Amino acid sequence: MMTLLELHLLATPKAAPELRHHLRAHGFDVRLCATELLTNVIDHLGEGTPVTVRVGGTAVGNRTRIEVTDPDPRALPVLLSAGETAESGRGLALVDALAERWGVEQGPDRKTVWCELRN
């Protein structure tokens, strides 16, 4: 991946608009997916978790790749089917719907959740 942007921040609710601001040159789908991946860290690991967000282009296929790395290799994201009235559980479903593909790369002391969107 050719990294265009790399941010080190704490996963907090106010980090989401800050992230969208840094991604203002990108389309709505990129901003939404990046925010949803960040929000997943807040929801599942807790506020204040240190994360690294990387956004860049892929060498093949003219795609934008978003990566969010956090320090917990065990808490893996799960695609849920949220009911119509559910107030949460839609984040990864949105990423799944918008992205060409997504996945998780685990390391011994971290994991990276990523997705790729066609430009």
UniProtKB/TrEMBL annotation:
Instruction: Return the Pfam families for the record.
Output: HATPase_c_2
Species the sequence originates in: Streptomyces corchorusii (Streptomyces chibaensis)
Q: Please give the superkingdom of this protein's source.
A: Bacteria
Q: Which keywords fit this entry according to its UniProt record?
A: Kinase, Serine/threonine-protein kinase, Transferase
Annotated coiled-coil segments of the chain: none
Q: Which InterPro entries match?
A: Anti-sigma-factor_SerPK, HATPase_C_sf, HATPase_dom
**Secreted as UniProt keyword:** no
The chain positions of domain Histidine kinase/HSP90-like ATPase read: 29-114
Cite the source lineage. Answer: Bacteria, Bacillati, Actinomycetota, Actinomycetes, Kitasatosporales
Q: Name one GO molecular function term.
A: protein serine/threonine kinase activity
Q: What is this protein called?
A: Histidine kinase/HSP90-like ATPase domain-containing protein
